[in-house]
Design a protein that fits this description.
Elements: H1 33-37, H2 44-50, H3 53-67, E1 71-74, H4 80-96, H5 98-105, H6 107-111, E2 113-122, E3 127-135, E4 140-142, E5 148-152, E6 155-161, E7 167-171, H7 185-211, E8 214-218, H8 226-238, E9 252-256, H9 264-282, H10 286-289, H11 298-322, H12 324-332, E10 340-343, H13 351-365, H14 371-378, H15 406-435, H16 439-449, H17 456-486
Antiparallel strand pairs: 1-10, 2-3, 2-7, 4-5, 5-6, 8-9
Helix pairs in contact: 3-5, 3-9, 3-11, 7-9, 13-15, 15-16, 15-17
């Protein structure tokens, strides 16, 4: 098979090869069906969606959930230059207000794409970030090559180019890379908001009818003149505001009562649409409307929210790392490994539970944890073990030394023979300890492992050792008997 051609792209979209799009020169247009059919390709229709109180509340919760997580700049390596590059990037992010930038760029998740402009400066040594200004996405389009363009009054057809070092942008939500504008949450929120607003309109009309019945004027069609009919109609209208009215003799005004006595249908539709909005925005209804312990619980809410927060935080941080963070590092620290900014989304491990689990495993297995494991897991410094005290072996004399017991002399050899079996057990027990999620899970795993622990190697070593000890014992008896005979 031949080697691939580098940088070759076959399924291109900007040269008329995309059958899902017409061959048009100039700028690409969003393929969002709602923008095309109801919004005239203008995101202003989605700005109206954001004015809904349920959308605003749920979307604000989602933004604040990301901002609440601490952000960290991690060096790309252990060298001094790597750490210096990370420290410089952290300083720049604090200057521009990284939380503010993150909150504004998160609107790209709502609309489908976001654009920010980087303003650069310089100090005594380095190129710096003076500001990051998140721009209104309605001012930008993408050309046939997927490059960002700025619309201006003098250039609405092709737009002005937006060079990469000055603009940071991303798109999200679409199901393919051929859609440069993405597909934001607003696309999925449009219809629930539309239905809810129309439901409220009819609900208010119903309440008006129920609170103020419709007035009905009756007249004699044989005798009433047009002037009489006009006066009767004016009297009917006056019922809505006046405390008293007059009508021609022979005419009658009555009130047409509403036949319904409840508003359940309107309220159910309203609540259903609010639940749909919450489902789309925060992933579930319980996190915004549920009562912990009833419709939802704290554990479920935290788990679902963590998934959304991590996805949003990774989107912002990863695109920034590939853009401005890379550019700044290459300009100022060309030899450094690229630093990485990220948010600490995962909750820290419960070290008390980890310590209890480790204690249980070590007590059951009989083995002590290594110094490296303790320092790596619990991030603590241990006192260095003192060097074993050196002692001068006692002088051995030819006479008076007690003969060494054969079994004692064979113990080190037996321990060496059994070491592989013991190491296998240790490895299996440590693996179970690391994979267990709770003490109950650890207990079940240990019970399941017990029948599988191999005793063959252990038994072979013990059999050999016992046989050797027996032979050595017989030899000692024979030597002792021979010594007695010689005496």
């Amino acid at each position: 098979m031949q080697l691939p051609q580098l940088n070759r792209e076959i399924a291109t979209t900007g040269d008329g090869r995309d059958i899902t799009k017409g061959f048009l020169r100039g700028l690409q247009q969003p393929s969002d069906s709602i923008l095309r059919s109801r919004g005239n390709l203008d995101l202003k229709i989605y700005e109206q969606v954001l004015s809904d109180w349920q959308v605003k509340s749920c979307w604000g919760d989602r933004q604040r959930a990301v901002i609440a997580k601490e952000w960290v700049v991690e060096p790309g390596g252990e060298r001094r230059v790597d750490k210096a590059a990370a420290a410089h990037l952290e300083q720049q992010l604090r200057r521009v207000g990284w939380d503010r930038v993150t909150q504004l760029m998160l609107y790209g998740v709502f609309y489908g794409y976001a654009v920010a402009e980087a303003i650069y400066g310089r100090d005594d040594r380095f190129i710096t970030l003076q500001a990051i200004k998140v721009r209104n996405r309605r001012r930008f389009r993408y050309d046939q090559d997927g490059m960002l363009r700025l619309l201006t009054p003098g250039n609405l057809f092709e737009g002005e180019p937006c060079p990469a070092p000055y603009f940071w942008n991303f798109s999200t939500g679409a199901d393919n890379d051929d859609e440069p504008y993405g597909l934001g949450l607003a696309h999925w929120l449009y219809w629930p908001v539309w239905f809810k607003r129309n439901d409220i309109k009819f609900w208010l009309t119903f309440l008006e009818k129920f609170g103020m019945p419709t007035a009905v004027g009756e007249f004699d069609p044989n005798n009433a003149t047009p002037e009489d009919k006009a006066r009767l109609l004016a009297a009917v209208h006056a019922i809505q505001t006046d405390s008293g009215i007059i009508i021609p003799k022979g005419m009658l005004i009555s009130l047409l009562e509403a036949g319904r006595s409840g508003t359940a249908d309107y309220k159910d539709l309203h609540d259903t649409m609010d639940a749909a909005i919450a489902k789309v925005t925060v992933g579930q209804t319980a996190s915004s409307q549920g009562t912990p312990g009833r419709l939802g619980n704290d554990e479920l809410q935290g788990e679902v929210r963590e998934d959304l927060v991590k996805a949003d935080a990774d989107l912002i941080c990863e695109t920034f790392n590939l853009g401005p963070a890379t550019w700044l590092t290459r300009w100022n620290f060309p030899d450094a490994e690229l630093p990485r900014v990220f948010r600490q989304v995962e909750e820290p491990e419960d070290m008390k539970a980890r310590a209890e689990r480790d204690k249980t495993v070590f007590d059951m297995s009989g083995f002590r944890p290594t110094r490296g494991y303790i320092q790596r897991t619990y991030d603590i410094e241990l006192e260095e073990e003192p060097d074993p005290a050196t002692s001068t072996p006692p002088t051995e004399f030819a006479e008076g030394a007690a003969p060494r017991d054969p079994a004692e002399a064979m113990a080190p050899r037996l321990a060496a023979d059994m070491a592989p079996a013991v190491r296998d057990w240790q490895h299996q027990l440590r693996q179970i300890r690391d994979e267990a999620t709770s003490l109950e899970d650890l207990r079940e795993r240990l019970l399941a492992l017990a029948p599988e622990l191999s005793l063959e190697q252990y038994a072979e070593a013990m059999t050999t050792g016992l046989a050797a000890a027996e032979l050595a014992g017989r030899n000692d008896v024979q030597d002792e008997l021979a010594a007695r005979d010689n005496a």
